[in-house]
């Protein structure tokens, strides 16, 4: 089945990169030692009016890799129950495949050479992503290995805020503390924040 190309492909906007917002929930802060527990990603594309908008969000719960550690304090923050019978978690290979396939399709649809990770404290998310890629020997990672776009910097410039919740509120959007620290929710809000700031560049934010 053929896919209709977008009216405004993104290949010329970010030097051939497709921005993809990623958020991970983990068992700690060390990407080599602590488990990746949840990942979500949302490609950013143009709408019919040539404004950046949030695409479909793809997500997966992740089975902790063998030998990984999980800090109980991290689980208190995220609320993740790794033993929940309906968690429907995939191993790292399966989770990456689930996320990477639609991202590669979005990059191709927008005539982009590869994806660039957008995140709030993006180096954290990229670190866990790259560590999982290395562990499973994944050969089709669509992301640039070290370049990122960080909404911490963008929000500090636009609103004087660096905390995601405060930046989202400063941008005039809603924030629900009860939904926070879910990879899907944080991805959605980070993506909306990114679009709001970039679309407002040169205009009144």
Portion in helices: 25-40%
The ordered string of helix (H) and strand (E) elements is EEEEHHEHEHHH
User: Count the strands?
Assistant: 6
| End-to-end separation | 40 Å
Q: Give the count of helical stretches.
A: 6
Structural class: alpha/beta
Segments where pLDDT lies below 50 for 5+ residues?
none
β-sheet strand percentage:
15-25%
Shape, please?
globular
Radius of gyration: 17 Å
Mean pLDDT score, rounded? 95
The description of the largest β-sheet is: 6 strands, mixed
Description:
By secondary structure, the chain is α/β, with parallel strands linked by helices. It contains 6 helices and 6 strands, in the order E-E-E-E-H-H-E-H-E-H-H-H. Strand 2 and strand 3 form a beta hairpin. The relative contact order is 0.19.
Give the key terms:
single chain; 205 residues; alpha/beta; six-stranded mixed sheet; 6 helices; 36% helix; 20% strand; globular
Summarize the structure.
With 205 residues, the chain is α/β, with parallel strands linked by helices.
What is this structure's SSE topology?
Layout: E1 17-26, E2 36-46, E3 52-54, E4 58-61, H1 72-78, H2 92-109, E5 114-119, H3 122-136, E6 143-150, H4 151-159, H5 164-170, H6 183-199
